[in-house]
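User: I'm designing a mutation panel for Reverse transcriptase Ty1/copia-type domain-containing protein and want to avoid disrupting the core. Could you give me a predicted structure to guide residue selection? Please restate the sequence first so the numbering is unambiguous.

Assistant: Good idea. Sequence first, for numbering, then the predicted structure tokens:
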Amino acid sequence: MTGTAAQKARRNDEESNRPVEEINSVREEDPKNYGQAMKSVQRKKWLTAMSKELQAFEDNGLITVKVVLMLALRWGVPARHGDIPNAYVKSDKEEHLDIYLEIPQWMKIQDGTLRQFGVQEKSHLALKLKKSLYGLKQAGHLWSQLLHTRLEEAGFMQSSSPRMVELFFEAMTCLSIKDLGEVRKFLGMRVSLEDEETCTVDKQATIEEMHESHGLKEENGVRAPISEEADKVRKGPVLLTTGPR
């Protein structure tokens, strides 16, 4: 055996003895319906996710929004929406709380202010919060209270059913409402007023944005025909499954 062949043989032996890491991964496909979710090994997580989704519907007033849109159609008045810039900072904080914030790195403090407080660096100072601010646990609640107060001052009453519905109009300049025109998008949903009697709410725009963010905008869909076995299924009553017992 020549020297070159011997070196090659030793190199092959070393590579064959080199440890190799192998990873086995088992991926469970997402369930397509409630029954599959209840049979999944991730059953508890799916139940938690569903509960959060239903709670989000309630918190965002999804059903109430649909009722308002239907009333707009019935009355022949185009539904409009608006935005209140920096809404949370318009409400006062809770009086019994003193909240202090660290000064942000990008915030400049004048030298005269530093001398006034007898310090040399802004890190020795803190900001005392006088208004509510995004990120505080009570910010949403405080803003809701302020809005309710302003609505009552404008002469409006809160409806008894559903409780979340309140009415106001463009005269409420005290909150500097920015008119966004007729409703086209609300809480991530696209709102389409097709005619005088039809209002459609969908999530197509959100889905298209997700496609684009994941690089799937230019991908082509594939249509798969239903197998012949589907024709052999006997028709019968629909049975609801509650999952494994």
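For picking mutation sites, this is relevant: The two ends are 70 Å apart (CA to CA). Confidence is low (pLDDT under 50) at residues 241-245.
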